[in-house]
Design goal:
Shape: globular
CATH architecture: Orthogonal Bundle
Largest sheet: 2 strands, antiparallel
Number of helices: 3
Low-confidence stretches: none
Strand order of the largest sheet: 1-2
Order of helices and strands: EEHHH
Bound molecules: FE2/S2 (inorganic) cluster
Structural class: mainly alpha
Helix content: 40-55%
Amino acid sequence: MDFDKVVCNCLNITNGMIKEAVDAGADTLEKVQAATGAGTVCGACIEDLQHLVDEFVSERNQK
Ligand code: FES
């Protein structure tokens, strides 16, 4: 995965920033939104965010 890829264009939030939020304890879309602000402006990235959160949470749970 490209961690420098921007997932939320409104706030310039990258895949890596979503992963950091998940690793820091945000294990739902809502918590990631609260932690990063991603998906809180136009909402166009919500679906992509949800996929990332699901993926990072399951990765984290395997550790
Ligand atoms: S692209 Fe994420 S809120 Fe607009």
